[in-house]
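Quick sanity check, histidine kinase:
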Amino acid sequence: MQTSIDATLLTIIISTVLVLGLCIAIIYALFFYQRKKFRHQQELIEMREAFGQTLLQSKLAIQEQTLDHISKELHANFSHLVSLININLSEILPQSPEDQRESILETKSLAKQLMSELKALSANLNTDHIIHIGFVKALENELNRLAKSRRYEVVITKTGEEYRMSAEHEIILFRLCQEVLNNVVKYAKATKISTSLSFSPDLFILTIADDGSGFDVKEALYQSGEKQSTGLLNIRKRASIINSEFNIVSGEGKGTVVTINMPNPERTNIPVL
């Protein structure tokens, strides 16, 4: 009788141990599976991000090549045509009646302005020129061009000891600024543009503010995502390539403030012009 009870207890104990062992094995297998699945998902996310970064960098490289080509075409062909127009007007002027000379002189003046604008545009599109003069000088040229239009009051302030950054950083920064300023011209209805550049060893901060009509930032970001447009989302992606934070604060009737923070900027020993 005792032997039978002992055998039953032993069977229960062994069965319990086997069940517990099986449960532990199942739990461990589920845990291992979930961990492997999580790692796989992380790897997929990292691969997508890496692919996205590579694709964006390729797009930017193609864009720079296209802009360089347009810059050279403007300089070589359009500037040449404007020069010919100016020469022809100069030849026509002495033979023209008195009542037409004023119009011809005004046309010559407009042709000279057009030539000046073409040269400035060609320079701003040319990557090599931007790398040569540096980001700060290129941005100042862009802002001065807006000031010359007399549509805007332009204010530029700089703090800290100015330094040059890597060519890639300067080109992407300048293209970001061009896009921001282009949005100001197209949509903001502003009269004043204030730009601040703050240099410190560990952080570069760029701020562009306008007194325009402003807009709903959340709505603009939502529409950028819905329409898959190349607006604010694209600017943020570009900023991420140079490890920068892109922030925008705006509201209806309150103007817009754009801030780009670049921690530990990649500096070079290129002298500031």
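Posting the structure with no commentary besides this: The radius of gyration is 32 Å.
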